[in-house]
Design goal:
- 56% of the residues lie in helices and 7% in strands.
- The relative contact order is 0.15.
- The mean pLDDT is 97.
């Protein structure tokens, strides 16, 4: 498989984590969002939306949108499972993932931040915008993990929710968001730092980092 992504992209990061947790081998191709490589003709031929990541499967199919890619990985390579077997538990894990994937990350990605600045927001206002959505989402996740987690977001093994959470914590640190109110989330971050699949997926360890 070939993963086209950007080292610091949260969506690329979560996809790397899932691939690593599944124990799957893949090649990385960097798409530098800073230089507009995502809008090149070659990349648009691969992914017409011009976003990362894009995963080329062993069969040559191209998958885009990280939620779809992660669900495909779970369906195609079911072990180790990243979703619980119980339908209610699966829905609860998906809900945690959606807090990040639907309610935090989309409002703080590169193109949205550029739009916020384009309508006149200065650095302080942009920082406030970023922190607002992270804090709102993390307030909810902290409570959800307190109720349902036992070392990870849900129960005692990594799930899709952790694939989403860890990149968002990385992003929060990049933007200097105070995380002291989230001991449960920070405990998961510490556990992830010691887990080979999460450690190998970290942005700083990617070949295109810099």
């Amino acid at each position: 498989m070939i993963l086209h992504g950007y080292w610091r992209s949260g969506t690329s990061y979560r996809t790397r984590i899932a691939l690593n947790l599944k124990g799957l081998s893949y090649d990385l191709v960097g798409v530098d969002l800073r230089t507009g490589a995502q809008r090149s003709g070659d990349y648009l031929a691969l992914n017409p939306q011009g976003l990362v990541p894009a995963l080329v499967t062993d069969g040559g199919d191209v998958l885009s949108q990280s939620p779809a890619i992660l669900e495909w990985l779970e369906e195609t390579f079911p072990q180790p499972a990243l979703l619980p077997s119980d339908p209610v538990a699966r829905a609860q894990v998906r809900a945690m993932a959606a807090v990040v994937g639907c309610d935090i990350h989309p409002l703080n990605n590169l193109r949205v931040l550029k739009a916020v600045k384009a309508i006149g927001a200065d650095d302080a206002a942009t920082q406030g915008w970023i922190a607002q959505w992270i804090v709102s989402g993390f307030d909810a996740l902290e409570a959800m993990v307190a109720k349902q987690g036992r070392g990870w977001c849900y129960a005692d093994t990594p799930t899709l929710a952790d694939c989403y959470l860890i990149p968002q914590i990385y992003s929060a640190r990049r933007f200097n968001v105070d995380l002291s109110a989230y001991p449960n989330l920070l405990a998961i971050e510490t556990r992830a730092q010691a887990h080979p699949a999460f450690a190998a997926a970290h942005p700083d360890r990617q070949p295109d980092a810099g």
